[in-house]
Amino acid sequence: MTTETFEFQVEARQLLQLMIHSVYSNKDVFLRELVSNASDALDKLRLEKLRDDSLDADVSDLHIELHVDKEARTLTVRDNGIGMSYDEVGQLIGTIANSGTATFLKELEEAKEGAGAEGLIGQFGVGFYSGFMAADEVTLVTRRAGERQGTRWTSRGEATYTLERVDDAPQGTSVTLHLKPADPENQLHDYTSEWKIREIVKRYSDFITWPIRMVPEAKDGEDAPEPETLNSMKALWARSRDEVSDDEYHELYKHISHDWREPLETIRLQAEGTFEYQALLFVPSHAPHDLFTRDFKRGVQLYVKRVFIMDDCEALLPPYLRFVKGVVDAQDLSLNVSREILQQDRHIRMMQRRLTKKVLSTVKEIKTKDADRYATFWREFGTALKEGLVTDSENRDAILAVSSFATTHSDDEPTTLAQYVERMKDGQDDIWFITGESRQSIENSPHMEAFRDKGIEVLLLTDAVDEVWVDAVGEYEGKKLRSVTKGEIDLDAEGEEKAGEEREKQAEEYAGLLGWMRERLQEDIKEVRLSTRLTVSPACIVSDAHDLTPALENMYRAMGQEVPRTKRILELNPGHPLVKGLHKAYQASEDRTELAESAELLHTLAVLAEGGQPKDPARFVRLVADRLERTL
Ligand code: ADP
Q1: Whose CA is nearest to atom 4 of ligand 1?
Q2: What band does 568 get if pLDDT is binned at 50, 70 and 90?
């Protein structure tokens, strides 16, 4: 048979280097990773055989086997699961498909040798490659169930690996680690020690539902002993709470999530009665990098009577809770159940409702009990949760109760709507908000001037989803949610009618200018009026109360929908010298060429002030340069 040599993909090589130089302090976890892969391979084979009985594979004794050879200093992890084909080995083991890992490597690169690097590496699961923390050479022999020929992969973790076809490979995969030389200083990391292997399996992999066997060393003069099963195989979710330690829960979390960090919260739920199930759910402590990508994989696994059925079971939780990981084990489903059936099953729908409520009430509990933990939760998952305000009207109140928003009231403490309402001023009827790209850009927008002046609190909403949920929710405790950039606003408290009268008089006075400007700007603007929003800026642009905001328009367009461009409203500040001057010039002159340019400039200034783009940047620059020149 020929042996072919291949180069590792660049990212894979970087990761291997990290493993070899072992930046990660707890080397023991490599065994957890290999056992976890083996367990997945057994799950996959069992399912494939269930779906296709003609598959030529033996599923009568699925198990994992550990074998230590003290003389040769090797440790082998063997499973008789699904295995991999020749091509699969190249794809799966030679490259890093996981986009999170690629992003992680980029971050690591940025952190460079800085103190951040060591912290970062501990946060990412690197699966198979972690073997190189303990070994200086790894050999993998595998045969895909149903195929006749196997594949041998070997690497010293440097730039290359070799692939070779083999004829006599048993079904499944065996990974042999050629352990690094023993360190006489550090017996703790002696992976040829039976005792050490037992300890690691017990600590990290006890809950694995397949037997993990090891043949104990034969004592002198005795026959080879029978293999021993090292793990209890007990499903954690089926055991009572006081039997299971937090550490055990966390290890299960790491197995299903491929996250190496502790979860933020563990949630247990046992439902009895006609449709019995157990759920063990985890809220991670960090949002994955791909949470907002289209093909993000959910993290809830479905088991039926302790048997793994599927990963990524989308029927169990709504999309806005897709960051929740865990296991749901139902007693009364068929082992053959498909995704399509699950989507339509009445019991599953009830289960989803119950799990959703349980997750939300747990978040509420965190919020009441532990401000720091809640802050972490909201920072990581708030944006996802807010999607629920749009899609899950049944739980809207529960979601609002745990939602918090940046506010002009505080530089760093977000507020709930309840707290906002408590602080509302006498005579204030509405909850005010502004949406936009960043806190800085919206906080300094001209639309905020009158609010700042009168000390009225405004919520500062900067997530794309904010544009949508505010409309969907509409009001909170009878108070309308209103954008400071939409509609006409009247912030005068009672007893300030005089101000109102004065404004009417002013509007009459300016009527000529306003009408003329509207004509001039009609391509972009549907109305020009005097503003009650502005105290400092000369002009701003607002939308009608029911119009789409420009950000929403862009969002729809990005999704490929046709949206007509909505014309907006230009508001002028009659207290500003620029506007006063414009008015005077309008009244005085017959030739309004110059004035028309000024009107156009004023409009563009208002567009810029809210973070927009001039329609014709070159023309804008020319007009401004012209005027500057005249001041010199
Ligand atoms: P991860 O497990 O996070 O996907 P790994 O690098 O550990 O990353 O493994 C990459 C892929 O290689 C796995 O997703 C799986 O498809 C395959 N693989 C690894 N170990 C085994 C095994 N023992 N049996 C079959 N396939 C395996």
Answers
A1: 127
A2: very high
